Amino acid sequence: MAAIKLMISCVIYLLFIFFVQSSKAAYNVISFGAKPDGKTDSTQSFLEAWASACASPQASTIYVPKGRYLIKAVVFRGPCKNRITFQIDGTIVAPTDYRALGNSGYWILFIKVDRLTLIGATLDAKGAGFWACRKSGKNCPVGARSITFNWANNVVISGLTSINSQLAHLVINSCDNVLVRNVKLTAPDKSPNTDGIHVQSSTGVTVSGGTLRTGDDCISIGPGTRNLLMNNIICGPGHGVSIGSLGKDINEDGVQNVTLTNAVFTGSDNGVRIKSWARDSNSFVRNVVFQNIIMNNVENPILIDQNYCPNNQGCPRQTSGVKISQVTYRNIKGTSATPEAVTFDCSPSNPCRGIRLQDIKLTFMNKAATSSCKNIGGTSSGLLMPESCL
Ligand SMILES: *[C@@H]1O[C@H](CO)[C@@H](O)[C@H](O)[C@H]1NC(C)=O
C-alpha cells in the first residue's frame, strides 16, 4: 500500500516538474528582430525580449543564439515578475566608435533585478579607440564599464567572457547574493583602468573560478563590501587583487569579511594589496584572509599601502584614517619580481592591528626576498621567508 502511495506521489511530482518546465516562457531575440550580423543595431530587439520576459508571471528564458549582435548602451531594468535566465550563446559587440558608449558610463546595465541567471555571453567592447584617446591626452568621454549590476539580488553570472572593455569589465554595485562563476576577462596589460571585477556596497558576493588578464586590478574591492569570497582565481597581468583605494571620503563604509583562497598571480604589479588614501576617514578593513596563493614573478606580492595620494594633492596630514585589522596571510609561495616581497606601510595615526603571517615563502632571484614594516602589530608563525618584520 505504502509503495503504491509512494509511486503515485512520484508520478504527481514528475507531472508537476514537467508542467513547471513546459510552462517556462522562452523569448528568442531573433523573433524580436535581432540580427546576428554584427552590424545591425539590435538594441531595441533585446529590450523588447527583456520587457516580455520581465512581465512574464512564469519563470522565463531569453535566448540569444550564436552570432554577433551590435548593442548600444542599454539598461535592463527590474523588478521583474519572476526569475529570468538570460542565455547568451552569441557575442555582443559595441559600436566601433568609442564615443557611442563613452558618455554613458555603462554599456550593459542591469538595475534592480532579482533572481537573474546570466549564462554565457561574450562581450566585445572594442575599447582600443577609447584607450588611445586617453593616451593621447585629448578630451575624452568618461568611458563605459562593460557590464554592471546595480541594486541586483540573487544573481548568477556563469561563463561570461569579456574582452577589451573601455573601463572595468564587470561591476557589482549595491547588490546582495551574487555568484560569479568561471568568467574570463581580458584586456591588454597597458590598457588603463580596465579592472576585471569591481565590487562595492555589496554583500554575499562569490567569485569562483575565473581568469582575469587585464590592465588594472583583477578584482578591486570598494567601500561597503561585506562577505566576499573569491576562490580559484587566475590573475595577471594587471594590478592584482586590491582592497581599495579606501578612505578617499571622510565618511565611508568599510570592508569586512573578505576571503581569497586558491589563486595564482602571474606577472602582475601586485598580488594581494590593501590600499588607502593618506586622508582622514572613518573607513576600515577587517577580517580578511588571503590563503593558498602562488605568486609568479609578481612585483609586490604582499602589500599594504596607506600612503596613496596621487600628485600629493588633497592629503593635508599625509596620514590615513582607515583602520586595518585582522588580516591573515597564509600559505603564500612563489617568486617576487622585486627584492621586497612583503611591504606593510600602515598609517602612523591608525596602525594596522592583528596582522598574521603564516607559512610564507617568497623568493627573489632564487634568494629570500625582504620585508618591511611600518606602524603595524601582529603575529607570525610557521615557515617565514622573508623573515617576518612583525
Ligand atoms: C563571511 O562571509 C562568508 C561568505 O564569504 C559567509 O559565509 C560567512 O557567514 C560570513 N561571516 C560572517 C561572520 O558574517
TrEMBL record:
Keywords: Cell wall, Cell wall biogenesis/degradation, Glycosidase, Hydrolase, Secreted, Signal. The keyword Nucleotide-binding does not apply. The active site is at H239. One of its GO terms (molecular function) is polygalacturonase activity. It is found in: Secreted, Cell wall. It comes from Acer yangbiense. SMART domains: PbH1. InterPro entries: Glyco_hydro_28, PbH1, Pectin_lyas_fold, Pectin_lyase_fold/virulence. Residues 1-25 form the signal peptide. One of its GO terms (biological process) is cell wall organization. This is Pectate lyase superfamily protein domain-containing protein. Belongs to the glycosyl hydrolase 28 family. Pfam families: Glyco_hydro_28 (PF00295).
